[in-house]
Amino acid sequence: MGAKRRIGVLALQGAVSEHLDMVKRGGCAGLAVKNRADLGAVDALILPGGESTTLGRLIREQELEDDIRAFVKTRPLLGTCAGLILCARELVGDARPRPLGLMDISVERNGFGRQRESFEADLEVEGAGSIRAVFIRAPFIQSVGVGARVLASLDDKIVMAEQGNVLVTAFHPELADDMRIFNYFVAKSSGALAESHFLL
């Protein structure tokens, strides 16, 4: 057997432990990424859910913006909820946080309402079929540009997309038992799969 894939979780703020638990359940080695050296030690990176404005500020304070942009040129990144927001090219009607511009997508923060409007739903995901998804103060993708591909929508709102090495979800795969999205992300980190080919 080969060495375990090393999956980093950006550990500046947010649902870090939940994502590290998912990494462990997926049979990979998890690393809490707090600085440039940590980032250089992983095969793939997860930007977790949390408070997007705070997370964006901490990324800038740690001077990780350019490093993350360089990272996704050669290695996969998964952005969940707040992580999706930070991956955007632009935010709709909101100047905060300053996104990283990793994908050609336009995102609306809190697009499904505030914390009390949290819910679960069954999604039809391209290449994977039905997946149960947990939404907590979730954003949605209002539009996608050239190169970005929609993988799932809910009530005509885009909630999962992919562009190159970057995969984003408006929901929280770390809170579900279904590991297909994570397994797909890990497979991307090994270069084993083409886009939109899920492990069923």
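Next protein, fold it too.
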Amino acid sequence: MVPQRHDHSRIGLLGGSFNPAHEGHREISLAAMNLLGLEAVWWLVSPRNPLKDPESYMPYEERLWRARRMAQHPSIVISNFEERRRLLYTADTLEALTELWPDMRFVWLMGADSLETIHEWKDWRRIFELIPIAVFNRPGHETAPEASVAAKEFAAFRREGEEARALADAEPPAWAFFAETANPASATDLRARWGI
């Protein structure tokens, strides 16, 4: 999908190292398209995560290849945008995307496990201010939507019910939690199983 500058599509953005991509990524993407009425989800495969050990990474091209194999859906787009633009931080990526496609309705997608730690990310408050955020349940992280630092700080901007489903059209800051997903897949567990 190569959008035009004045494209008004609703697009979910799922970022991460995808080291490797797994069924949990796919489940969140399909749920987001269904619940939020998105035309597509872009998997933004990061060159590396500044908060993680670089020694644990599979080669970038292999991560892209595995992501394409896992996605298996015409509306899930595997993107090397961050690698091409030499971007490492989510806030910088979102600023670049919203500048390139100012009319597009982007939604940041993340698992509840990431919501627990997003306050450790560079310029994390800026992420909430740039685009709406959809948080999806991950087993073992069910308390994050109430107990995490970010959830508490942005509690006044949480959307529920029909407002949550209209998240793609909301003005940020706006975020919602969706309990429908429950895939326990973990990239860390997969690497351990494969001996990587």
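About the second fold: The first helix runs from residue 23 to 36.
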